[in-house]
Amino acid sequence: QVQLVESGGGLVQAGGSLRLSCAASGSIFSINDMGWYRQAPGKQRELVAAITSGGSTIYADSVKGRFTISRDNAKNTVYLQMNSLKPEDTAVYYCNAQIRGSSWLTPRDYWGQGTQVTVSS
């Protein structure tokens, strides 16, 4: 059984910063891509940032230059440093990871439970 546990959300004023963490635990052979998605009320879930096992990254245009994704492969953990936060960044943020439980299994998508980020103006 694999579990993703997120932490670091909260309430912050516009212009402030938050750092999200997501730790994967359980039966893990390897982790491919890891990423962060968000979903605001009444909107579809969207990709915020993703990082490969080798460290290559992609970002949504709306967060480029403000957010930084990173990972610690030894700790099976992915981070999202969010700076210069705006009210439009308010959403539930979800961690995602493609995890292989054993060498003979194909990677599966796993999701965290979500953490609320609220940016006040």
Question: Could you explain how this protein is built, in words?
Answer:
With 121 residues, this protein is mainly beta. 0% of the residues lie in helices and 58% in strands. The chain has no helices and eleven strands. 31% of the residues are buried. The model has no long low-confidence stretch (mean pLDDT 96).
Question: Tags for this entry?
Answer:
121 residues, elongated, mainly beta, 4-stranded antiparallel β-sheet
Annotate the secondary structure layout.
Elements lengths: L1 E6 L2 E4 L4 E9 L3 E10 L6 E6 L5 E3 L7 E6 L4 E6 L8 E10 L7 E4 L3 E6 L1
Parallel strand pairs: 2-11
Antiparallel strand pairs: 1-3, 3-8, 4-5, 4-9, 5-6, 7-8, 9-10, 9-11
Cα Rg: 14 Å
Shape: elongated
Q: Unreliable runs, pLDDT <50, ≥5 residues? A: none
Category from helices, strands and their pairing: mainly beta
Strand segment count: 11
Overall residue-averaged pLDDT value: 96
Brief sketch in words of this structure:
This protein is 0% helix and 58% strand. It has no helices and eleven strands.
